[in-house]
């Protein structure tokens, strides 16, 4: 196999200058062995395997000091020949010896033709968009041996690994008289990243924005190679046609991450029984290491299309679409964009074991007027038997919700200071809105450190009813001042809980304390920390400019105090 024939011989002869020294023949000659042959599928085949004389490119970088890893540079390039026994020899035919210090080794084997990389931190890599003739010019093997090898009589062992991902499409049918898989046409992989940038020093690939189709072999069992990437949910990944059937077959798949060195097999079964209506399609997917014989993880088993009825939907709420977040054991499922007609959802039911139920954990429902709301389920099991009923009653104060306990139901429209209660809108979709308090305490924390800029000035976090507003203001202030959010411990702890959690405003935390009798039963059930009216809780609300010194103060449930005086923190979020 003639590889990289366009590389100039002069560049090879001038390479390795600063990596090796031939001044002392008493040193150890550099020798390498690799595991490349073990990684190649069908390695006895001339097309898929390696042959003696195939070229491998190594960058041998000499360390300036024994304990500092040397990154590869263009002048470190050494062209190697591969031997049948796994040994690598220098292509220039010369003998090369260890330098006085240690060396780090980086390298790759790539069957696809490419120019020599000019910047090793941004080495362009890509896959063919037409792989209809197989995989013989796409696979990329990468090695990093940054262990600081010193003089040794033993060869340096290089462990190459696949940089790309392999995708296998396996199509079967039980009705070959109607669906003739020997007459496949237009087999394609859709909308995948085909161009990326490799940092040779780290082995990390940064994908470019280019997405393209990949033409696959016209076979019922075919493979392509792609860059590692994230696959969005409900994506049309494959399409193919069968002669005599006008409409193409399209395979939509759940979200998945394609990792380097992994092989993903999609088993698609298509049947069209005489007199039984449209084509029936089922699929499953398995994952294994590229060079392994057996799959190590079964991601999904076949799914049957089922119907689920939504009940107890609030008046004036017309649901048109749903995103479902399900679990089967420890495996998570996300089914997005499911059409809802007359409160009925139809979707393919993806479970690990046939007959097994799925746990419905959360849903996002979209209405006719383009609004949406989240709904959280505590113990909802779907059996996938077309008799599933999912009730959507409006939640109430004290219910478990969104990782906490509800303390306000409805869209908050104001705060009644006379009654010390929140005013809410409970019409239509707003019955599914509200706020929750975290079940656990985040401990006793300061509003901010004594020495930060937010201590001695008013930051602007003066809202008394919505801590989300205050938290955003403080976060923006910290960024603009170039300060560290950890110096604002109460805010930092709430933000670290995750998206949408915030440090409550003073009226929020006071109202939470006033509702402790209703809230604590669920908090106990969830194993949390009880709300206690004997505890001093902090808020995100600054006192403001009431007096000359008040800008240094913030509101707590017992009054105001300096921002560096700690109080117990309880995170809040809206839903």
From TrEMBL:
Pfam families tied to this protein: Mfa_like_1 (PF13149)
Superkingdom of origin: Bacteria
Entry-linked CDD domains: BF2867_like_C (cd13121), BF2867_like_N (cd13120)
UniProt protein name: Fimbrillin family protein
Organism this protein belongs to: Butyricimonas hominis
């Amino acid at each position: 196999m003639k590889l990289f024939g366009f590389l100039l011989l002069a560049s090879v002869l001038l390479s390795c200058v600063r990596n090796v020294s031939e001044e002392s023949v008493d040193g150890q000659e550099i020798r390498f062995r690799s595991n490349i042959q073990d990684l190649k599928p069908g390695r006895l085949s001339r097309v898929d395997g390696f042959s003696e004389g195939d070229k491998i490119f190594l960058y041998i970088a000499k360390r300036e000091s024994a304990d500092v890893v040397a990154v590869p540079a263009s002048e470190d390039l050494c062209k190697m020949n591969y031997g049948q026994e796994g040994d690598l020899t220098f292509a220039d035919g010369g003998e090369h010896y260890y330098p006085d210090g240690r060396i780090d080794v980086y390298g790759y084997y790539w069957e696809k033709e490419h120019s020599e990389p000019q910047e090793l931190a941004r080495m362009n890599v890509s896959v063919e968009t037409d792989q209809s003739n197989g995989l013989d010019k796409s696979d990329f093997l990468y090695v990093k041996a940054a262990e600081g090898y010193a003089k040794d009589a033993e060869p340096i062992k290089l462990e190459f690994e696949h940089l790309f991902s392999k995708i296998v499409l396996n199509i079967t049918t039980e009705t070959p008289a109607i669906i003739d898989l020997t007459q496949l046409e237009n087999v394609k992989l859709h909308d995948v990243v085909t161009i990326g940038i490799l940092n040779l020093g780290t082995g990390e690939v940064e994908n470019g924005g280019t997405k393209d189709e990949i033409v696959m072999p016209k076979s019922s069992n075919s493979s392509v190679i792609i860059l590692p990437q994230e696959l969005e949910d409900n994506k049309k990944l494959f399409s193919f046609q069968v002669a005599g059937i006008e409409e193409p077959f399209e395979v939509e798949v759940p979200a998945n991450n394609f990792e380097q060195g992994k092989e993903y097999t999609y088993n698609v079964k298509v049947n069209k029984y005489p007199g039984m209506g449209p084509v029936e399609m089922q699929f499953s997917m398995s994952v294994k290491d590229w060079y392994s014989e057996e799959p190590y993880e079964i991601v999904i088993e076949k799914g049957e299309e089922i119907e689920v009825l939504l009940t107890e939907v609030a008046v004036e709420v017309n649901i048109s679409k749903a995103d479902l977040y399900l679990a089967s054991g420890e495996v998570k499922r996300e089914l997005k964009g499911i059409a809802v007609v007359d409160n009925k959802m139809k979707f393919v039911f993806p479970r690990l074991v046939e007959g097994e139920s799925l746990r419905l954990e959360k849903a996002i429902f979209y209405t006719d007027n383009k609004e949406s709301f989240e709904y959280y389920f505590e113990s909802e099991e779907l059996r996938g038997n077309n008799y599933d009923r999912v009730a959507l009653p409006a939640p109430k104060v004290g219910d478990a919700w969104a990782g906490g306990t509800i303390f306000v139901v409805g869209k908050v429209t104001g705060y009644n200071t006379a009654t010390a209660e929140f005013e809410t809108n409970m019409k239509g979709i707003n019955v599914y809105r509200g706020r929750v308090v975290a079940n656990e305490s985040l401990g006793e924390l300061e509003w901010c450190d004594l020495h930060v800029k937010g201590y001695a000035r008013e930051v602007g976090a003066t809202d008394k009813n919505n801590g989300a507003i205050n938290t955003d203001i403080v976060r923006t202030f910290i960024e603009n001042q170039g300060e560290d959010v950890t110096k604002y411990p109460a805010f930092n702890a709430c933000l670290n809980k995750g998206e949408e959690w915030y440090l409550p405003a003073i009226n929020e935390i006071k109202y939470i304390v006033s509702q402790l009798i209703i809230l604590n039963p669920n908090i106990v059930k969830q194993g949390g920390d009880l709300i206690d009216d004997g505890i001093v809780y902090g808020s995100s609300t600054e006192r403001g400019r009431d007096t000359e010194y008040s800008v240094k103060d913030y509101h707590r449930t017992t009054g105001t105090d300096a921002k560096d005086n700690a109080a117990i923190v309880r995170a809040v979020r809206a839903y």
